[in-house]
Amino acid sequence: MVLYLSEALTASFSTILQLAIILIPIMILLEYAKHFQLLEKLTSILEWLPRSLSMSPQAAFPLIVGIFVGVTYGAAIIIEYSRQGTLNKRDMLLCGVFLAINHSIIEDNLLLAALGANLLIILPLRFVMAYLITRSVSFYLDQKVKTV
C-alpha cells in the first residue's frame, strides 16, 4: 500500500513539474506578447482565416487570440467586442464553434505532447476539424438566411 502511494505521489509530482516547465514560460511569453502587441501583428498576418470562414474582419482579433492564447482570453475579447457592438451574433457563434475545437494551440498541444501525444497528428487535425466544422456551420447559417 505504501509503495503504491509512493509511486502515485512521485508520478503526480513529475507530471506537475512537466506542466510547470511548459506553462510558466508560456505565461511569460504571453506577457511579452501583450507588451509588444504581437497578437495584433499576428492578426494582420492571419486575417485570411476569418475571411475564409465567412466572418467579418472584426472577428479576426478575437479568433486569433483564442487560437493562440486560449479560449478563456479569446472569450473575454469576444464578450467585450459584443458589448461594444463590434461583433455580430453570427461572428460570435462562428468564433465559438472554431475555438471550441481548436483553441490554445500552443499550450494545449505542448501539454498533450508532454503526456506523449504526437503533435504532427494533433495540431493539423484539430485545425482542419475546426475549420471544416466552422465552415459547415457558416454554410448552414447562409442557407438558413436565404430561405427566410
In N-to-C order, the SSE pattern is HHHHHHHH
Number of helices: 8
Q: Which consecutive residue ranges, at least 5 long each, have pLDDT under 50?
A: none
Query: What does the average pLDDT come to?
Result: 87
- Which structural class best describes the helix and strand composition? mainly alpha
Shape: elongated
DSSP, total strands: 0
**Mind summarizing the main beta sheet?**
none
* Helix percent band: over 70%
Strand content: under 5%
- Distance N to C terminus: 66 Å
What is the rounded Rg?
19 Å
Overview of the structural elements:
This protein has 148 residues and is an all-alpha fold. It has eight helices and no strands. The protein has helices spanning 2-35, 38-45, 48-52, 60-68, 71-84, 89-101, 105-114, 119-147. It starts with a helix and ends with a helix. The mean pLDDT is 87.
Summarize the SSE layout with pairings.
Blueprint: H1 2-35, H2 38-45, H3 48-52, H4 60-68, H5 71-84, H6 89-101, H7 105-114, H8 119-147
Give the tags.
148 residues, mainly alpha
Please give a quick description of this structure.
This protein is mostly helical and 148 residues long.
